[in-house]
């Protein structure tokens, strides 16, 4: 039995070495920006230094000293892209001293081409460039393609800074009291003369009633109830609010008032390799309560952990972690058997 345990341990060590990515043995200080092919690394080549793409990262080699060196740009100029080297001259961009790269300020996000920083949240009626800007400010809103302003979704009407759900009958009204005869939790919008659901309530597809918004794992009848508090990635499945398959649960801090901050569970899209980030938590790609997320923020982009070549999804890491856990369980089980012999 002792020999058997010894063999299991040797198998575990060998498997750990096999599944461990080769790039993990490359010193971290010579790892540079992400790449897909050697052409992406020519920016670092000089007369004495060559650069190539190794396991998704640029690596530089000094031809005279025959040693690996830190990659440095061969042309020094002011950065005009978010995620580039400091100094940062773009409006609303700042230099992070930890990695000396340019990121957008806290309340801003980069455009798709990463040439500008735009506000993270935009109120109703204000100019926008993406739906996300509007949703950060107001639920049930989007960036209108024709006006390029934040507008309420179809089936919702604007009331100051929020979007309220229209009812199925769209009953007419003259004042706030005239809506009570059409059911509870309804108010009148005098400017349009129509009864709508009050804030925090939505009109379901199968009912004229205004149903309350619901949070994660709470009972629901319609997906719009979950959407009200958890965002467009939420759905009502088997009578409970949860996130759709392509979304994951994340905890977001919100201001209840000027003195306190609340935590709420929302459905955020699964992160993709290359997605902009400034913190590791921006790279969610699985359940929030997983022991170990498979992606991290590296040089302003979401990348697979442990130096894996960036492929979607980062399944190789997951496989190696599972293999290690299985082997560890085998060792513990064999040890338990030996103790009872």
From TrEMBL:
It comes from the Eukaryota. It holds the Pfam family EB. Residues 1-24 form the signal peptide. Keywords: Receptor, Signal. Residues 104-163, 207-251 form the EB domain. InterPro entries: EB_dom. Gene3D superfamilies: Tie2 ligand-binding domain superfamily (2.170.300.10). This is Platelet endothelial aggregation receptor 1. The lineage of its organism: Eukaryota, Metazoa, Ecdysozoa, Arthropoda, Hexapoda.
């Amino acid at each position: 039995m002792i020999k058997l345990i010894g063999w299991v341990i040797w198998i575990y060590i060998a498997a750990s070495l096999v599944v461990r990515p080769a790039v993990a043995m490359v010193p971290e200080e010579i790892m540079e920006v992400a790449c897909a092919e050697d052409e992406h690394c020519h920016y670092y080549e000089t007369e004495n230094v060559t650069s190539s793409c190794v396991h998704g990262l640029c690596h530089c080699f000094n031809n005279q000293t025959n040693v690996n060196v830190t990659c440095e740009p061969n042309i020094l100029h002011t950065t005009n892209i978010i995620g580039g080297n400091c100094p940062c001259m773009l409006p609303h961009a700042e230099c992070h001293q930890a990695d000396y790269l340019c990121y957008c300020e806290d309340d801003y996000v980069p455009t798709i081409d990463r040439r500008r920083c735009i506000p993270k949240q935009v109120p109703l009626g204000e100019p926008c460039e993406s739906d996300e800007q509007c949703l950060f400010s107001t639920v049930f809103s989007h960036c209108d393609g024709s006006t390029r302003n934040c507008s309420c979704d179809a089936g919702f009407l604007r009331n100051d800074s929020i979007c309220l759900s229209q009812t199925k009958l769209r009953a007419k009204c003259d004042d706030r009291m005239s809506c009570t005869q059409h059911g509870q939790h309804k108010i009148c919008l005098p400017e349009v003369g129509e009864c709508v659901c009050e804030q925090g309530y939505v009109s379901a597809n199968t009912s004229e009633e205004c149903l309350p918004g619901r949070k994660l794992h709470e009972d629901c009848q319609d997906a719009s109830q979950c959407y009200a508090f958890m965002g467009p990635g939420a759905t009502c499945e088997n009578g409970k609010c949860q996130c759709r398959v392509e979304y994951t649960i994340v905890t977001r801090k919100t201001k209840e008032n000027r003195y306190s901050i609340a935590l709420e569970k929302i459905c955020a899209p699964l992160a993709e390799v290359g997605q902009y980030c400034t913190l590791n938590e921006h790279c969610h790609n699985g359940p929030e309560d997983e022991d170990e997320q498979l992606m991290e923020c590296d040089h302003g982009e979401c990348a697979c952990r442990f130096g894996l070549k960036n492929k979607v999804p980062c399944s190789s890491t997951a496989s190696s972690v599972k293999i290690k856990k299985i082997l560890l369980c085998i060792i513990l089980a064999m040890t338990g058997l030996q103790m009872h012999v």
